[in-house]
Automatic annotation (TrEMBL):
Organism (species): Jeotgalibaca dankookensis
Transmembrane segments: 9-31, 164-186
Membrane topology type: Multi-pass membrane protein
Highest classification ranks of the organism: Bacteria, Bacillati, Bacillota, Bacilli, Lactobacillales
Catalytic activity annotation: ATP + protein L-histidine = ADP + protein N-phospho-L-histidine
Protein known as: histidine kinase
Histidine kinase domain ranges (all copies): 251-468
GO cellular component, as recorded: plasma membrane
Amino acid sequence: MKYVYKQMLAFLIVFVVTVLTTGIIFIRFFVTNIYDEKERQLFGYAEAIIEENMTLADISTGTAMISKQDVIVAMYNKNDRLVYPISNQTYSSGLSDRDWNRLVQGNRIALRQRDRGFMNEEIAIVTVYVPLFNYQNGDFEGTVAVAAPISGIKKDISHMQTGMLWATLISGGMAILFSIGFANYLSQRIVRMRKATNAITQGDFEIYLEDYGRDEFDELSRDFNKMVTSLKESNAEIMRQENLRRQFMMDVAHEMRTPLTTINGILEGLEHDMIPEKRRARSIEMMHKETRRMIRMVNENLDYEKMRSEQIVLTKQILNAQEILQTVKEQLQTKASSKGNTIGVSVSSPHLTIYADYDRLIQMLVNLTNNAIQFTENGRISLTAHASDGFTVIKVSDTGIGMKEEEIPAIWERFYKTDPSRRSDAYSETGIGLAIVKSLVANHGGEITVTSKIGKGTVFTIQLPNKENSDGQ
């Protein structure tokens, strides 16, 4: 069953239960009222007879006058014998001893259901009894009984029930129309959400549901919109990661193909004696170089994955900044000179220290310096260090080609290259160095930033906490 029909059914059930309950209560109320009103009327007749001190002749005349109102009058003496209407037979009131004693004590009695008349005729009547006392001595003289056929009361009740039935049918029809309209209104809002959900499954993340802030449906719409925004962002991130994965596979294939092609060509040349004897040593050296390049690329990727999964273990110690920077300069001086570059080292104090893992710190600085050399020709590369508020600040700057500001966030991705036309040169850069540097700095509890201007150069700044700051983190 569809939700709209369930709602309609629920509304109708609630309506029917409410109407039936209310109807039963009202019917009982009105029936009681009708009987009470009839009893008051009959008591009024009986009391009028007593107050007027009517004789039997007067009662007979009065009874003839009110007979059209379906009122029957009877009188019983103190011995419970019928004295009016006059009859050749003896009749009693038929009251129980308990009820007769109540009359003797001066209490009025009302009987709503009697199936016999005063002279034992078959008729359903409502009867009231009012005790009659002697005005002079106050002795109980008998009772005045006034009755009315129930048929007249039932006619009034029937008219009332008919009116209630019509009111129920009319209100029921209105309730059905209202339930259809209201259920359709609520269902339309659900249908709107279902259509929006289907749109999302088709990849449409621009869908938006109106939020009027009125009820739970609007709260659901608000949460739905948040979900769509989150899905949109997640989808964009998935697409970005997928593009990076594809680019990664292409770059790995490209980086591996170059050395493998070189090695394969040399091996074929050696196999077919196509390489002269005097060039064989150089060829073998090239194979060693390309092999080391592939090993370095594999190791760098393994290191990067270890750092991302926090599997790397750092052995931190206090290191002399001057010695560290000087070591990096000596390792890369030859490479820098091949491109016409010079490397300068400047430390604010000979006693300046760096709290870091020795091998990983050298790896960071070598990668940054290699990057500087890669994009600088006939320029200067500077390695500097100074202390600043519990941190050691290390800068690697160059006077190279620089980068655009929008390119800076992307340089930390694996295999990202600011210059698409760049290919591996004699020093075999893999394009993963900066990603490794960022991860290593983070593992040290530090921070790395970069500033750059096109044609002016680039500055990488590393902040590493000193021993006290690092141990406190």
